[in-house]
Please model this.
Amino acid sequence: MSNYRIHGATGDWEVVIGLEVHAQVTSKAKLFSGASTEFGAEPNAQVSLVDAAMPGMLPVPNAECVRQAVRTGMAIEAEINKWSRFDRKNYFYADLPQGYQISQLYHPIVGEGKLLIEADEKAGIPHDKIIGIERIHIEQDAGKLMHDQHPTMSYVDLNRVGVALMEIVSRPDMTSPAEAGAYVRKLRAILRYVGSCDGNMEEGSMRADVNVSVRKVGDPELGTRTETKNVNSVRFVMAAIEHEARRQVDVLEDGGTIVQETRLFDPGTGTTRSMRSKEDAHDYRYFPDPDLLPLELDDQFLADCRASLPELPDAKRKRYIEELGLSEYNARELTADVEVFARFETLLAATARGIGKPENEVATQVANWSLSVAPGVMKALGDEANPAHATAEAQAAILDMQAKGEISGGQAKEIYEIVLKTGRDPAEVADTEGLKQQSDSGAIEAAVDAVLAANADKVEQYRGGKEALFGFFVGQTMKAMQGKANPGVVNSVLKAKLG
Model:
């Protein structure tokens, strides 16, 4: 259970949160027409006769959109309904030429599922938690009104009309902004793993409607909820919940009542504002779409969908821990996004080949490099870094030299900086820039002897039991060798010399 509470004058309140995530299905054509779904086209350049609701134009379901919705359902361990049906949701708005939206209210394609969010003490999630998913249905998107093109008129762009959306409806199982943020991040990761949505919230291909209510701690009754529409980032989802929950508590403690309504989130102020009273299903006069037959899925189609699924985040995280020996933290961070794990796995394979060791023996080194060292160098260089130079081969060559003791961790960073700036070969950089460790035990012995001779008093103190001085001798030896001595060899020689 989350520890998140809102402290009010009359006591503590808890928040109940449910999310409806609209995810644009990855497909080249729209849900019921052949018009393109490519982002960034000129207004009204991607509108078919079906999208424009010309008389006599009948919709035809896009099989790829159906396939992607089924695969998404399977990825969240949901029930797949072999029989589903489209309904008309009737409302009149300028960006909806038909006067209705084709959706699925009564018989969705995907039923009950679940999603695991992992414990994160720092974020305020003390335990792993299962969030229930009520359903996924597919529907068509509406167009877009543009109010900033003319001083007295609004323009309509119908490019998005008919674009396929999956509406993924959670149970009201979240009790803090942190849990909601973790849920959206995990859901976005799953969609990207599966390839059913690109998850680009800034481009509008994934957005969330945030349902929030509050109640006194321990009260079994749910409060009246509000719905904040079209929130387009994880940070804004969390901010909208924070503000809306606090607002509702203030209203209730002042003796007011919460109105069931639709609200909008203002990113500039971090506040929500009223948009309109919340409609119920009967307000939309839903009825089965007479132009579309029910969807009936056969066993072979479902088997093909399941066979096409990749290894999913939870399974991958478990494998990284059990087979590669990674820490819980590294495994979680590496599996949080498709691009991150793809880079890691490519680099891991290249490094294991170069060093000639099994992947599990070099996985921790590669994980630390991937999550901390390489991004740190890239960030420090800023515009000086050329990401095209950050190839798996170049990074593997650096890790190879480090694993063999030819370069130190500090030298690995320096070499990577030069590679990012210039694209030079890492081995050539190490040779010509003097960035190689000295592992010659004879040279290191000579340096150690000089250090011990110059610090005879400290040698006596060390032998008398002051073992913390060992670090001092290491530091002095490294300084004498200008930081180029192999620390492992230095430690060995010092231990031998000091007895």
